[in-house]
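Page 47, continued from p. 46.
Same chain as before, 319 aa.
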Amino acid sequence: MAAITTTTAPPQTRTVRPIQNKQVVKPGLGVELLTAGTAACIADLFTFPLDTTKVRLQVQGEGGSNALQGRGVFGTLIHIAKNEGPSSLYSGIVPGLQRQMAFSAIRIGAYESVKNKYMEMSGVTGGIQLMGVRIAAGVTTGTLAILAAQPTDVVKVRMQAAGSSQQYKGVMDAYWTIGQKEGLKNGLYRGTFPNIARNCIVNVGETVVYDAAKDGFISGGYMKEGIGCHFSSAVVAGVTATLVASPVDVVKTRFMNSPRGKYRGAIHCAKQTARKEGWKTFYKGFNASCMRLVSWNIVLWLSYEQIKIAVKEQYKSKA
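Result:
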C-alpha cells in the first residue's frame, strides 16, 4: 500500500500596520485673532449708536456745541437722530471697526494663548492663583492691543463728538488733520496711557470676568456649555466692566477730545474735571455705558463662541 504524504503549507504571517493617529489641526493664532476681531465688529455694528450717545454725554460740561445738558440716554440718542440725522449716530463707525479689528482681535483673540503660556510658565492649574494668571493675561493683551489701535480710537472719539458738524470730511481726512495739526504724540497717540489703564481694566472686567464666570457656571453645575451660559457670563462681564472702568473712560474721552494744550496730561484732566464738575462727573454717561457694554458683550461673546465652534468644525472636517 502506497504511503500517503501530506504537505502542510507554511503559516501565513499577516503584517499588522500600526494605527496612525490623525493629527488634530487647531486654528492658528491668526485665525483666532480674525475670529475675535470679526465678533467685535458685529457687536459694534449693533451697539454703535449707544457708544456715540455715551461719548456725547461724557463730553458735557466742556462747553462744546454738542453739549446736551439734562437729557438721559434715550433723550440724547433721539436728540442726535432728530437734529443731526440718524447717520450721526454712526459717526466714527469706520475707525470704530478698524479699532475692533486691531484692538479686540488682540485683547480677546490672543487672551487664551497668553493665559495658557502663563499657566505653563507658572505651573498654575487652579484656585486663586489661576485668577492671577487670568488677570496678568488680560493686562498683557489689553496693553498690546492699545499700542496697536490707539490712533483708531482717537479718530473714533473725535468723529463721534463732532457728529454732523463737518469738522472732518471723512475718516482719512480725520487721520490726516489730527496727524498734521497735532502730530503723533499729542494727536493720534494722545491719551495712550489713560487708554491703556482704561482698557486693561475693561479687558479684565470683560474677558477675564467672562472667562471666570463661564468656568464658574459650568464647574459649579449651574449651567452647561451653551448659549444660556454664554449669555449669562456676558451680562456679568458687561456690568463689571462698566462699574470699574467708567471713571477712566470719562477721563480718556475728555482728554482725547480736548484741544491741544487744554490739559497737561490725563491726571491734570481728571483733577480739573473733579474740581469744576464734581466726582459724580466720572460716572456721567454711566447708563449709556452700561447699556452699551452689556449689550456689546452679549453680542460679542455669543458671536465669538458661535464663530469659534464653526471654525473648529471646519478644521475637524479637514483633519
